Amino acid sequence: MRTLEGVVRPYAWGSRTAIASLRGKAVPSPHPEAELWFGAHPAGPAICLPTDGVPDTDLLSAIDADRVGMLGEHTVEAFDGRLPFLMKVLAAEEPLSLQAHPSSEQAREGFDRENAQGLPFDAADRNYRDPWHKPELIVAITDFEALAGFRDPQTTVELLRDLQVSELDPYLGMLAGQPDSEGLRALFTTWLTLPDASIATLVPAVLGGAVDLLGAGSSRFAAELRTVLELGEVYPRDPGVLASLLLNRIHLEPGDGLYLPAGNLHAYLHGTGVEIMANSDNVLRGGLTPKHIDVPELLRVLDFTPAAVEDITPPIRMVGAERVYLTPAPEFRLSRVELDGTGLVYASSICFDMPGPQILAVLSGSVEVRSMGGVVTTVPAGQAVWIGDAEPDVVVHAASSRAVFFRARVPVGTGS
Ligand SMILES: [Zn+2]
């Protein structure tokens, strides 16, 4: 068992308050803080704080020094001796790029192809930095806004009609004439490959239509329209602004989850959440970013099947105080546990006895983690604790009147 200090990623879209206040630091932070990583990713492994004469190290080095003891045989064999997930606190003050992630097959094929082309691993125009897929799950801590999955095309036709922008007519016609995944593919492809001159007239026309429709009041698409305006303000010449019209505009309440499987086009807009993903860097971007964009490669991996919001909302199973988000990714299982230090409303403690690697990240209050060997660690909000395969039996007590932590682990078998 090791107490973990997360690694802050200072991306420009981050918040100056959310992660700093979670970690008990001065607010606002001097720079935006976008993500707090709890994992063993080579680009930012968590720090293992010193305990009982064991010096500090990082989680990647600690795992590499004792793979079977830390991960267990199942995880070592199934995932090449790596911790297969990365858990983060993500705090978005501004929208992130429009993106999708490849399937395992696409990632392997793309990685081999770019290797054969001789592209260096750190090249800016490299799409595939490793041969793995990157399914993602985010669970909201605050209200959380996102775009994810293609909306039912019939509803999108109604949105485009309501805008009453004559420049949109040919595109509206494409989707109205074929309101299905092929129509979505055709329209998305057309928009992402429009010449700059066409984008320069179409985006302002759409923004003008959105202003007028919002001004008229009572549009059922008010949230969608406000999002288009926000994106257009930051990226006035970006076809991603148009693409946002095709996606579900999703609002998550605290505790709600969103699962993004391979091929799902998505963009986080605003809010703080806990995100868990397979330990991969494979991102294909379609816009709303100054980073590398590869439209043909994005089109190869995108799934244009319309997705209802229910389709990408993971089922939840309550196991006592533990709220488990059931997703099909073999790399991770995420759950949220709320303990009540008074024991009056909820349980004040919870036992875990499952093998395999686990990270418990405390988001509110503090907890005391006790191993069967008698080791006791107190973990405050903003820190996490690592539990290795060799020490699976732990009891977690609330050390404050209310304590919330997220538990990340590797699922064992089916449904566990
Ligand atoms: Zn993503």
From TrEMBL:
An example Pfam family from this entry, by short name, is: PMI_typeI_cat
Give the species: Gordonia insulae
**Entry similarity comment:** Belongs to the mannose-6-phosphate isomerase type 1 family.
Q: Which GO terms describe its molecular function?
A: mannose-6-phosphate isomerase activity; zinc ion binding
Query: Which residue ranges does the record assign to the Phosphomannose isomerase type I catalytic domain?
Result: 3-151
Which residues does the record give as Zn(2+) binding sites? Q99, H101, E136, H266
Q: Which Gene3D superfamilies match?
A: Jelly Rolls, Phosphomannose Isomerase, domain 2
EC numbers:
5.3.1.8
InterPro entries xref list: Man6P_Isoase-1, Mannose-6-P_Isomerase, PMI_typeI_cat, RmlC-like_jellyroll, RmlC_Cupin_sf
* Annotated protein name in UniProt: mannose-6-phosphate isomerase
Cofactor: bound how, per the entry note?
Binds 1 zinc ion per subunit.
The UniProt entry, under PANTHER family, shows: MANNOSE-6-PHOSPHATE ISOMERASE
What is any one of the record's Gene Ontology cellular component terms?
cytosol
Catalytic activity entry: D-mannose 6-phosphate = D-fructose 6-phosphate
Its keywords, alphabetically, are:
Isomerase, Metal-binding, Zinc
Q: Which cofactor(s) does the record list?
A: Zn(2+)
Residue numbers annotated as active site: R285
An annotated GO BP: carbohydrate metabolic process
